[in-house]
Amino acid sequence: MSENIRVLLPEDELAGRIAELGAQISKDYEGESVFLVCVLKGASFFACELAKRITVPVIIDFMATSSYGSGTVSTGVVKIKKDLDLDPAGQNVIIVEDIIDSGNTLNYLSQVFKDRGAKSVRMCTMLDKPDRREVDVHVDYTGFTIPDQFVVGYGLDYDQKYRNLPYIGVVELD
Ligand code: IMP
Ligand code: MG
């Protein structure tokens, strides 16, 4: 079986939309600072490009999560595999994700940061697949809404491959 990658969102479209999101965040937090929480590994490419487009002061930190499921069915249980280095208490946290699928990861993380005393907690995702939602999460900043297809590139992987593609593509198996 071989894989073919069909371009869904080219590099220039991603760059344009990320610049818009950065401008929107800069406007919304005028006079304040933001604390970007990048969820590894997938969101790393997006978070770095987004940070470059934000004009208010930015702190960036990284964490990794894993979700446990039996087979292909997610249990909705999320675990922190790598925690932040910095303390988010009193900060305007923006959780930066690559893609929202079931919504379990963001749902869990938003509660974590509220419990840790963040001043505010918002969500920003590069991609949203709303058809797959299992829990209702409020997303403040969305790059693109896409259909229920498995995508790779710009940080997203298929079996750890393709994260380095500069565009978002759909994996086609043939
Ligand atoms: P969820 O919203 O908790 O289900 O978690 C979403 C996570 O699943 C994302 O952060 C990705 O790591 C992964 N994921 C979901 N859909 C895709 C996809 O189409 N391609 C690659 N990874 C995906
Ligand atoms: Mg992820």
Task: Provide the descriptors you would attach to this structure in a database record.
alpha/beta; 3-stranded antiparallel sheet; about 20% helix; binds inosinic acid; Rossmann fold; single chain; binds magnesium ion; about 170 residues; 6-stranded mixed sheet
**Radius of gyration, Cα only, in angstroms?**
16 Å
Number of domains: 1
CATH topology: Rossmann fold
Please report the number of helical segments: 3
**Strand order within the widest beta sheet:** 4-3-2-5-6-7
Ligand identities: inosinic acid, magnesium ion
In the CATH hierarchy, what is the architecture at level 2?
Answer: 3-Layer(aba) Sandwich
Q: Which secondary-structure class do the elements indicate? A: alpha/beta
How would you characterize this protein structure?
This protein is of the alpha/beta class and 174 residues long. The protein is 22% helix and 39% strand. It has three helices and nine strands; from the N terminus they run βαβαβββαββββ. It has helices at residues 11-28, 44-52, 104-115, and strands at residues 3-9, 34-40, 58-70, 73-82, 92-100, 120-128, 141-145, 151-152, 168-173. The mean pLDDT is 93. The structure holds inosinic acid (IMP) and magnesium ion. Inosinic acid is lined by residues 42, 67, 97-105, 150-152, 156.
List strands and helices in order, with pairings.
Layout: E1 3-9, H1 11-28, E2 34-40, H2 44-52, E3 58-70, E4 73-82, E5 92-100, H3 104-115, E6 120-128, E7 141-145, E8 151-152, E9 168-173
Parallel strand pairs: 2-3, 2-5, 5-6, 6-7
Antiparallel strand pairs: 1-9, 3-4, 8-9
Bound molecules: inosinic acid and magnesium ion.
